[in-house]
Write a structure and sequence with these properties.
Elements: E1 2-9, E2 14-19, H1 22-30, H2 38-43, E3 45-54, H3 57-69, H4 72-79, H5 83-91, E4 98-102
Antiparallel strand pairs: 1-2, 1-3, 3-4
Length: 105
């Protein structure tokens, strides 16, 4: 499985990434290990906002690409679970290929 995730950073920015091992990757981001992303190293990841799961790297990369292209306002809306933004996003890809996990505030 591949996971596409959105992290909230201390400066209120949102980082989006993909991984095969979500638990390991979160540990790297939150503990600022040498393998964490340069962005989260300097922006301090504080919370996992959303996670999507899919079976192939190709599907994961497409979703990550579309999320990264969203405006800050749309990313915020997506992080909060706004279904209208998610519908627009999933219209670009086959939504049946993804499972969505929402983390409550």
């Amino acid at each position: 499985m591949y996971y596409i995730y959105m992290l909230r950073c201390k400066d209120n920015s949102i980082y989006t990434g993909i991984t095969k091992d979500l638990q390991r990757r979160m540990k790297e981001h939150f503990e600022k290990s040498e393998k964490c992303a340069k962005y989260t190293l300097s922006h301090n990841a504080i919370k996992l906002e959303r996670v999507w799961e899919t079976t192939t790297k190709s599907f994961a990369s497409k979703l990550e690409y579309y999320i990264k292209k969203l405006s800050k306002a749309k990313k915020e809306s997506l992080a909060k679970g706004n279904s209208e933004i998610e519908d627009v996003l999933l219209d670009k890809i086959d939504e049946t290929l993804y499972s969505i996990y929402v983390f409550k505030k």
